[in-house]
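Running co-folding for adenosine-5'-triphosphate.
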Amino acid sequence: MDETLAATAAKLRLDELTGEMVSKSELKKRTQKRAKKAAIQARKQTDDTKSREPDEAKPSAAAPDEAAHVDPDAMFKLGFLAEVYKERPAKEVLTRFPPEPNGYLHLGHAKAIAVNFGFAKYHGGKTILRFDDTNPDKEKEEFFLAIEEAVRWLGFTPCAVTYSSDNFQKLYDLAEKLIHLERAYVCHCVEAEIKLQRGGKEGKEGPRYRCEHAMQGVETNLEKFRDMRDGKYEPQTAFLRMKQDIENHNPQMWDLAAYRIPKDRKPHFRTGDTWKIYPTYDFTHGLCDSFEGITHSLCTTEFIMSRESYEWLNKALEVYEPMQREYGRLNVSGTILSKRSLEKLVELGIVRGWDDPRLFTLSALRRRGVPPAAILSFINELGVTTTSTTIPITRFEQSIRRCLETSVPRLMLVLEPLPVVIDDLGDLEGQEVDFPLSTHDTSMGSRKLKLTKTIYIDRSDFREVDSPDYFRLAPGKTIGLLRFPHLIRAIDFTKDGEGRVTEVKAVLDSVTKKPKAFIHWVPSDSKPVEVRIHDSLFRSENPSSVESGFLNDVNHDSEKIYKHALVNLGFDEVARTSPWPKSALEQDNANPENIRFQGLRVAYFTIDSDSTSEKIVLNRIVSLKEDSGK
Ligand code: ATP
Ligand code: MG
């Protein structure tokens, strides 16, 4: 057995024995460290292949790549999940997705959802959404609601929503049965003693042994367990331990806790004050899988060692035995996913809430306008294996672009409007030009764009002094405006007292030579909007490994707000005819995040939930190309 894993697992159980639920994150940290190396490697490759300076004239989006052709069911047909099915080709597949309702789901959970719901769906089966609500100290109603909403948003419908707490009585009865079978005892040892019993630090310092409590008779154990149930013990002074096999090399078999008395004695969200003791993950999970008749219990690889105790318990109690198999966790670089850490960012007000578009919770991705289909295809393209991977965030962004590039309409949006007055527009003024919403899909139709004497271009598209390597507007220079029937030449400009350019004067130009650049613009009757552009919330690739803590890695310049942006009037029509993309997953077109469009030469955008009838706020979903600064 892997020594490090054994030691970590030993520590894990100790934590649970004392009622501290820090176990899984411990394991994750280690996995993340290993994955960091791989991520840096992968990132290097991405950087090597990234595109050069964007071609200014072409409002092109993401470059196509071979991933675009991946079979949408590939993850079930090949590899790990195909093998799992071969091992147990059940006629009626029944899986479960078992989140702890202690926070909002994140991108990593989307993989767990895609694996569990997707596997069952692919085989014509069903999936239960089971809330693993055995730790009242950490659970809130808000989390239950957000979790179910996220699952449904991703496009999956649970065949039932269940709660581990539905089974508290059944679990209690089975714990008494285990005592009768002489396979459980009430223990009063403190953490240091338990450590010694498990062979000391890292399980290597001494022989393993059992405490005197393990020798108690059935009657004593029953009496003490009932006293625990009746609240006669203080938190952490007694717990029920399974009597497993301390000779076994697997620390998961060294008399794990089955029941504990939580520290805070908070009432349970569903069962109130009925219970003073709560079953541990190790006792609850396999038994609930068994009660529900789960065929394939799919979880992440931190639970590989738990498979033995999972099977031991179901066998000992002679109940139906589901099959547990483990796949690799999904981590992404440049952000944090753990619910515990996310909660800190929310509590400290570093972000706007659990759904802040800079986070990678599913509600944040939703608010940011990421279509669920992009998340699912990202996961499918990565495939499912038994290794835990850290994926460069740029790869996720590429999946989003690929999903949007042919499926959302195009509009013109100017972030920092600079007026350009075309003095000689003459008869053209007030005429309308056709503006197709898509160059790929004519069925999206077109909108009219009015030619006005004053138009607005982006401030960054004008320079006071021209130079040979600069292709956009400058005094004396001729350029094209996208969809505008004539080229224009800048002839003059004015500045305010602070030296800021306030207006450019231009004339129509009839040169026949094709200009080096076509820039975007909007007419004077455009719609004012606020635009929020979000960058990475963290400065480093792996914020959770920063020595002084991830909070010291926060990029405080990660949200740029353009208060006076302008979007052309086709916007209202695009909003009215949402959702974009018109995918079957998104039924409810009233949601603002379903209104998506490409701002030509700028980025993909959606409407933020902060919008009101008076003020539209847009979020950038993703840039058009990978940022060369990244
Ligand atoms: P976190 O610590 O990040 O909040 P967790 O593991 O505590 O996550 P649970 O609520 O216990 O979250 O997770 C429900 C299911 O989702 C579990 O089966 C778990 O293995 C899976 N899961 C959680 N994070 C990931 C991830 N990053 N990749 C794949 N599956 C995940
Ligand atoms: Mg957890």
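Result summary
The domain at 417-525 is CATH 2.40.240.10 (Ribosomal Protein L25; Chain P).
The longest strand covers residues 487-495.
Job closed.
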